[in-house]
Amino acid sequence: MGRKLKKLKKIRIHREGTHTLVWGLACLAIINAALYFGIDNKVPFYIFAIASIALYLVVVNFFRCPIRLFEGETENVVVAPADGKVVVVEEVEENEYFHDRRIMVSIFMSIFNVHANWIPVDGTIKLVKHHNGNFHKAWLPKASIENERSTVVIETPEGVEIMARQIAGAVARRIVTYPNSGEDCYIDEHMGFIKFGSRVDVYLPLGTKVNVKLGQKTTGNETVIARL
Fold first, then answer.
1. Largest separation between any pair of C-alpha atoms in the chain
2. How far is residue 120's CA from residue 152's CA, in Å, rounded to a whole number?
3. Which of 24, 73, 77, 79 has the smallest CB count inside 10 Å?
4. CB of 119 closer than 8 Å to CB of 191
5. What is the pLDDT of residues 197-206, one digit of tens each?
6. What string of DSSP letters covers 77-122?
7. 3-state secondary structure of 73
């Protein structure tokens, strides 16, 4: 899919949430019906019904998926792969793929953030690899190398390689990654989805100009986090 020039202000439910929302609604409806018709005192039913609606709305909010199209030129631009908060901006040793020093920018997603992930740069997919692991709290430094994670390496048209790493958290138990090795990829496309709280790390070459700072909130596919 190529880039679009016009930005769309629409929100839909992500396809990863369809199964959860359908079955969740069915289960809650059955339980509420059983309470309503099974007991004479309706107070427990009303309490559970209100709690059910609140819980369901939280889950619907989690699976929302805004349709966003990046405005502006994409050459040498790195956009935020996720909604969330910047929790790390530092130089680190990356030993999975590059085996050298890199600038790491980490974005933590709370349960209230959109959990769709976007491709951060135009280019070609060089590597997609899933790693089984632990489920430490996502904001801990060791989560980047010890947690369940998925690694995506992209080479830009200028020949620069960057890495995006999707990381599961203490609650997140499923990482979905869409690209395959050898495919062309573009800003505006979805990279994947992480369910229920997690983070995305982006590894950039030394010398990259980072445009975000610790504690800054990011909007996936909109915030420019760096320029190569």
1. 71
2. 10
3. 73
4. yes
5. 688 999 999 9
6. EEE-SSSEEEEEEEEEEETTTT-EEEEEEEEEE-TTS--EEE--SS
7. coil
Hey, what amino acid is at 51?
A
Other Cβ atoms less than 10 A from the Cβ of 13: the count is: 12
Dihedral of the alpha carbons of 96, 128, 158, 83, in degrees to the nearest 10 = -90
In contact, 87 and 137? CB cutoff 8 Å: no
Mean pLDDT of 150-167: 96
Q: Which residues pair with 178 in a beta bridge?
A: none
pTM of the model: 0.79
How confident is the model over 111-120, as pLDDT tens digits? Answer: 788 888 999 9
> How many angstroms separate the CA atoms of 143 and 107, rounded?
13
Catalytic residue numbers? 198
Tokens of 186: 């573009």
Q: Looking at per-residue confidence, does 58 or 99 come out higher?
A: 99
- Contact partners, residue 80, CB within 8 Å, separation at least 6: 107, 118, 120, 212, 218, 219, 220, 221, 222, 223, 224, 225
Contact 122, 196 (CB under 8 A): no
